[in-house]
Amino acid sequence: MKVILANPRGFCAGVNMAIECLEEVIQIFGSSIYVYHEIVHNKYVVNRFTEMGVTFVDAVSEVPENSILVFSAHGVSPQIRQQARERNIRTIDATCPLVTKVHTEAIKYAEAGYNIILIGHEGHDEVIGTMGEAPESITLIETPEEVAALEFPQEAKLAYLTQTTLSVDEAGQVIQSLKAKYPQIESPPKEDICYATTNRQAAVSELVVQADLVLVLGSQNSSNSKRLMEIGKSANKPSYLVDGVHELLPEWLDGCETVLITAGASAPEVVVDEMIQYLQDQYQAEVENAVVRKESVRFPLPKELRILQSK
């Protein structure tokens, strides 16, 4: 068996920053701290911090007053920040800077009187946070069919934004439909889909033709990981999204000569290593590292945390 190991894969700069941020907060304040939602969408990462004593919550009301609360990489709405202030909670913001960029754009367009069309998945943490910046100005859509149902007048001031972890191809189809219906629609100076999402999708798209099977390491609630699996399926290759080797079914490998392995932007390399080790032990797999693009992006820790580190 041959394993093609896609590069880039796994942690992006935003995830690295968020995890490093939480680790530093634990070093400074101890592990009896709280995180609003999952720090990143990955079971392995969340379980590791839970075992250390960190508590993940879905509402600010679950956090005792005067506690430490970390905001996840996906960002939060102004309403959540206000709730934290009202409970005298000290907050550390681990929002990915690329998500913050989308929030800033939403505020800018709303203040300028635009109707904002946000392309994204309903219920995703990032989308909830972005819509909270200007709920009266934002309309959420996901498909070209939903574009057809929009009823803005042709002369309306419109702008579109996107969730950072979308399928590049699918988002492109929605954007094309928007521009066809509303030629005047404005877009941010730089696209919102993040570099890491784009690069990981490009790697799978290029390498999938060589594979009999695609294995994506990541959690089911990870949007960018699901997109990687969907690319494999769209190429008519059996493709599975798994948290680790414990979810691998042996029958997937029946008659399989070449496996393409990648990992979502919130999946740690340890789960990739475990999968490769298993395939080497059980199938004498030979591994080929396939580098499609190189990454060197790094985000600094939040300013408030850097200040605490310097004391």
How would you portray this structure in words?
Keywords: 4Fe-4S, Iron, Iron-sulfur, Isoprene biosynthesis, Metal-binding, Oxidoreductase. InterPro entries: LytB/IspH. [4Fe-4S] cluster binds at residues 12, 96, 194. Helix content is 40%, strand content 18%. The protein is an alpha/beta fold and 311 residues long. The protein folds into 3 domains: 2-11 and 195-291, Cobalt-precorrin-4 Transmethylase, domain 1 (3-Layer(aba) Sandwich); 13-95 and 299-310, Rossmann fold (3-Layer(aba) Sandwich); 98-181, Cobalt-precorrin-4 Transmethylase, domain 1 (3-Layer(aba) Sandwich). Strands 10-9-11-1-12 form a 5-stranded parallel β-sheet, sandwiched between helices. A 4-stranded parallel β-sheet has the order 3-2-4-5, sandwiched between helices. Helix 4 (97-111) packs parallel to helix 5 and helix 8 packs parallel to helix 9. It is flat, with a radius of gyration of 21 Å. The mean pLDDT is 96.
Strand and helix layout:
Elements: E1 2-7, H1 13-29, E2 34-36, H2 43-52, E3 55-57, E4 68-71, H3 78-86, E5 90-93, H4 97-111, E6 115-119, H5 125-131, E7 138-141, H6 144-148, E8 158-162, H7 168-181, H8 195-207, E9 213-217, H9 223-234, E10 239-242, E11 258-263, H10 269-283, E12 286-291, H11 303-310
Parallel strand pairs: 1-11, 1-12, 2-3, 2-4, 4-5, 6-7, 6-8, 9-10, 9-11
